[in-house]
Amino acid sequence: MRERANVVVTPERFGSLDAALRKLKRKLAETGVLAAMNRHAYYTKPSERKRLKSTKARKRARRTETERYHAFNKNASRDAIYKQSA
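The chain above was modelled as a monomer; its predicted structure follows.
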């Protein structure tokens, strides 16, 4: 059975309706309700889901590779400076 998210926000506690709406939106985002609503807004074919999943994986791999590259070069240049001064 699916877990339900109970989100309760009372406007009286926050003083203004705007503050209560901000709090409600934040709570909905934290519980994942907004993501589920966006995911179920329209039908996504299984082939499209698979394509999007692989695209996200490629972007994630590229991003981590870039981060590793920059971290390595930053450390390598730092090591080169220390070797020259020693």
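Helices lie at 11-14, 17-31, 33-39, 46-85.
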